[in-house]
Protein backbone atom coordinates (compact mmCIF):
# COMPACT_ATOMS: atom_id res chain seq x y z
CA UNK A 1 0.00 0.00 0.00
CA UNK A 2 1.54 3.34 -1.01
CA UNK A 3 2.31 5.82 1.73
CA UNK A 4 0.25 9.02 1.95
CA UNK A 5 3.22 11.39 2.24
CA UNK A 6 6.32 9.86 0.57
CA UNK A 7 9.57 11.76 1.05
CA UNK A 8 10.64 13.53 -2.13
CA UNK A 9 14.20 12.21 -1.63
CA UNK A 10 14.07 8.69 -0.13
CA UNK A 11 10.42 7.82 -0.95
CA UNK A 12 9.84 6.53 2.61
CA UNK A 13 6.67 7.82 4.27
CA UNK A 14 7.07 11.05 6.24
CA UNK A 15 5.51 10.76 9.70
CA UNK A 16 7.79 12.66 12.06
CA UNK A 17 10.29 15.49 11.57
CA UNK A 18 8.85 16.27 8.18
CA UNK A 19 8.32 19.46 6.26
CA UNK A 20 6.30 20.25 3.14
CA UNK A 21 7.86 22.20 0.29
CA UNK A 22 5.92 25.31 -0.71
CA UNK A 23 7.73 25.41 -4.05
CA UNK A 24 6.61 23.87 -7.34
CA UNK A 25 7.04 20.25 -6.23
CA UNK A 26 4.90 20.55 -3.02
CA UNK A 27 6.48 17.30 -1.79
CA UNK A 28 6.96 16.28 1.83
CA UNK A 29 10.51 15.63 3.07
CA UNK A 30 12.21 14.21 6.12
CA UNK A 31 14.19 17.01 7.74
CA UNK A 32 17.37 14.92 7.50
CA UNK A 33 16.85 14.32 3.78
CA UNK A 34 17.06 18.11 3.32
CA UNK A 35 20.10 18.56 5.61
CA UNK A 36 17.97 20.07 8.39
CA UNK A 37 18.67 18.96 11.94
CA UNK A 38 15.51 17.87 13.76
CA UNK A 39 16.31 20.10 16.74
CA UNK A 40 16.63 23.09 14.39
CA UNK A 41 13.34 22.29 12.65
CA UNK A 42 11.57 22.32 16.03
CA UNK A 43 12.74 25.92 16.54
CA UNK A 44 11.31 27.19 13.25
CA UNK A 45 8.30 29.51 13.36
CA UNK A 46 5.12 28.72 11.45
CA UNK A 47 6.03 31.59 9.11
CA UNK A 48 9.41 29.96 8.32
CA UNK A 49 7.75 26.59 7.75
CA UNK A 50 5.05 28.23 5.60
CA UNK A 51 7.59 29.61 3.13
CA UNK A 52 10.16 26.78 3.15
CA UNK A 53 11.25 25.32 -0.19
CA UNK A 54 13.26 22.16 -0.81
CA UNK A 55 16.78 22.25 -2.21
CA UNK A 56 15.58 21.44 -5.75
CA UNK A 57 12.88 24.13 -5.86
CA UNK A 58 15.30 26.73 -4.49
CA UNK A 59 17.86 25.73 -7.13
CA UNK A 60 15.27 26.11 -9.91
CA UNK A 61 14.18 29.51 -8.59
CA UNK A 62 17.74 30.85 -8.12
CA UNK A 63 20.09 28.67 -10.21
CA UNK A 64 23.18 30.78 -9.46
CA UNK A 65 22.63 30.99 -5.70
CA UNK A 66 21.87 27.29 -5.10
CA UNK A 67 25.47 26.58 -4.13
CA UNK A 68 25.37 29.40 -1.59
CA UNK A 69 22.11 28.08 -0.07
CA UNK A 70 23.61 24.61 0.25
CA UNK A 71 26.83 26.02 1.71
CA UNK A 72 24.86 28.07 4.26
CA UNK A 73 22.81 25.02 5.23
CA UNK A 74 25.91 22.87 5.67
CA UNK A 75 27.63 25.59 7.70
CA UNK A 76 24.70 25.86 10.10
CA UNK A 77 24.47 22.09 10.55
CA UNK A 78 28.26 21.79 10.93
CA UNK A 79 28.45 24.41 13.67
CA UNK A 80 25.67 22.66 15.62
CA UNK A 81 27.44 19.32 15.21
CA UNK A 82 30.76 20.77 16.37
CA UNK A 83 29.10 22.25 19.46
CA UNK A 84 27.42 18.89 20.20
CA UNK A 85 30.81 17.16 19.93
CA UNK A 86 32.44 19.71 22.24
CA UNK A 87 29.69 19.20 24.82
CA UNK A 88 30.06 15.43 24.55
CA UNK A 89 33.84 15.63 25.09
CA UNK A 90 33.36 17.82 28.16
CA UNK A 91 30.80 15.37 29.59
CA UNK A 92 33.14 12.43 28.92
CA UNK A 93 36.04 14.19 30.62
CA UNK A 94 33.89 14.93 33.66
CA UNK A 95 32.73 11.31 33.86
CA UNK A 96 36.27 9.99 33.52
CA UNK A 97 37.51 12.42 36.15
CA UNK A 98 34.86 11.45 38.68
CA UNK A 99 35.40 7.75 37.91
CA UNK A 100 39.15 7.98 38.53
CA UNK A 101 38.54 9.82 41.80
CA UNK A 102 36.19 7.03 42.91
CA UNK A 103 38.90 4.47 42.11
CA UNK A 104 41.32 6.30 44.43
CA UNK A 105 38.86 6.00 47.31
Automatic annotation (TrEMBL):
Gene3D superfamilies: Zinc/RING finger domain, C3HC4 (zinc finger) (3.30.40.10). GO terms for molecular function: zinc ion binding. Transmembrane segments: none annotated. Keywords: Metal-binding, Zinc, Zinc-finger. Signal peptide: none annotated. This is PHD-type domain-containing protein. It comes from Cuerna arida.
Amino acid sequence: MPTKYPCGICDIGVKYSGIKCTGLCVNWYHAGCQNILEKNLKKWTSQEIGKWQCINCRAEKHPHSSNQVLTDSLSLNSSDTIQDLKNSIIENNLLESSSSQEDKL
